[in-house]
């Protein structure tokens, strides 16, 4: 073919001759080298390994992500090695294995430890029953019975969040669980639900109920997330609820315990007694072992799961409690704590009229000695008097202006007066009210004693020259409790304050004046300052400071103090400072500006339940656990520690007017009232 006649046909013929077997040309793009893809198994291994410590911290279940990390890591490596470079991610798989194996080993060890407890508990439960009708025929140890209860609260298997050793006990546990849940949600609004929880975010409660004792073992969801102050608040709530529930079925004075725990460990373990009526509910902190006696070894012969009787207890009651040396109606020494509660008691059980406290003689005080905990020189502390076996809790103390008399208001609705010249109790007024005596105070001349009570009554009593207390005359009556009463230092009127923030002042002793009322605050008034001259007074609930006019009964100024939960407050004698105890810190504020001037007690790491200014206006006394602390506000120094010889909370403190005497008593039944004398070159 001539190429000049048909060039295209000639070119095609030439190509066929050169490569006759070449496949026809298509429009597909040329093949290029593809990069290797990352193995999904290797990536899953690394992510699971990283999540394993996180799961351990959140819910204690790290074995699941650890196993996933190890399995997917090995599978990923196997596929990567067989892919001839087409699959990448070898480093991710190795990382997952490197973290997964140690976490897996740690998880196994932890599960073995917990599983051993589970196994012993389940074996114990199986051994307790040898018939199909659920009759207990053989006693187990107290430790094993407690462990069985702990197993029950570690899961939500109970459905409603409650278990008990009897049907009645389960009902108590159910009520406890539901009320605890509501209060926790109300008080801790920022609590977040955990990703994984053994109890699905519920309070799982086991109640162990016997004829003379009751214990609540409580699983608190996300317990480890609460700080120290939060855990302390939970303990207060739990004890208050437990006291209320136990009072429905037990007698006052019966034993009571509450144990709060997280997934694995206990937090606060509290023991005490069922309170009397609307009385205080006190507890002392202990360890897990203190719960053993609440899970007694028992044998039940009946065919029905009735409440065990005292005869069933293998551990005799006499071995658990010392024989009473006084009337059994008088409470024994109990822990010092009064959780705040506004509940109405299920029943009113007044103290038996047969209680007749003896004349209390002071023990021989030790010789004056210098405090070993002084941080500055010039102060000595010596014990002047001790008054022991005072029966029911003393809630408040007050010196007369001349320092001769010391008055104490008590939980059993009585008032005591002690003569500090003779060292004897000289006066007692019984059943001054239907409520416990919250506060006492002397008039400036020492001839009148004022009282405020938990049922809202305020009263005035005459005190004769020998310290005997006369009949009461009523003052203002509040709809709720009256927690504070304070006479004017200059005029014949007395001011009282209620739990709802209402303040009332009125004349006494024949002085003609109208009663004045002011709704000053929204919460319980903790402290009031009355001026020696003028009409400007102040009050605080710990969160704000209000100033008001006594003549007009009007608020003149409100200063926020930016404090959370508070325990106590005290004004300096000149009214220039106010001290607020909040949690484990005491903050002193300038009452003119509301600005903090000093911070005290943080290093002690314990709640200060009471604060009182010294008459010199520079020192401050606080009450902690078993000890009172004296502080210098100007230098922020800790001047002295006054040891009361126990670990119970101190709510009742008082200074004499000359500042040389301190009275203090732990807030519990059967405690010793101690009076200390301050001396040294500082005076």
TrEMBL record:
List the InterPro entries.
Answer: DUF4190, Quinoprotein_ADH-like_sf, WD40/YVTN_repeat-like_dom_sf, WD40_rpt
Keyword check for Membrane: yes
The Pro residues compositionally biased stretches are 348-369
For whether the record's keyword set contains Transmembrane, the answer is: yes
**Membrane spanning residue stretches:** 41-71, 92-119
Per its UniProt record, what SMART domains does this chain match?
WD40
**Per its UniProt record, what Pfam families does this chain match?**
DUF4190, WD40
Q: Which UniProt keywords apply?
A: Membrane, Transmembrane, Transmembrane helix
According to UniProt, the name of this protein is WD domain, G-beta repeat
Source organism:
Novipirellula herctigrandis
